[in-house]
Write a structure and sequence with these properties.
single chain; mainly alpha; 0% strand; transmembrane helix; transmembrane; membrane
């Protein structure tokens, strides 16, 4: 893997985390397993997939991106929860 791909991968990790925080905040407004809850979880996926493919990052890194997306969602839900208290 060359330096440019590594740079793009690090940027994609940061972007994945950052874009999922607002969706995690929005997800707190919906009841679990409702349509809104489902959309908040899955809406960022096409954007992240497009960026991964356009930057030529291997499919082998998808599990890492999923873990970072989950971390962003969890951070967003905790931010909202702490602001309500």
């Amino acid at each position: 893997m060359n330096t440019q791909v590594i740079f793009y991968f690090i940027l994609l990790l940061i972007f994945t985390y950052a874009i999922n925080i607002p969706f995690g905040i929005a997800r707190r407004k919906f009841s679990k397993f409702s349509m809104g809850w489902f959309l908040c979880i899955h809406a960022p996926i096409p954007i992240i997939a497009f960026l991964r493919i356009s930057t030529q990052i291997s499919f082998k890194f998808i599990p890492i991106l999923i873990a970072v997306a989950i971390a962003g969602q969890m951070t967003g839900s905790r931010v909202k929860r702490n602001n309500l208290s």
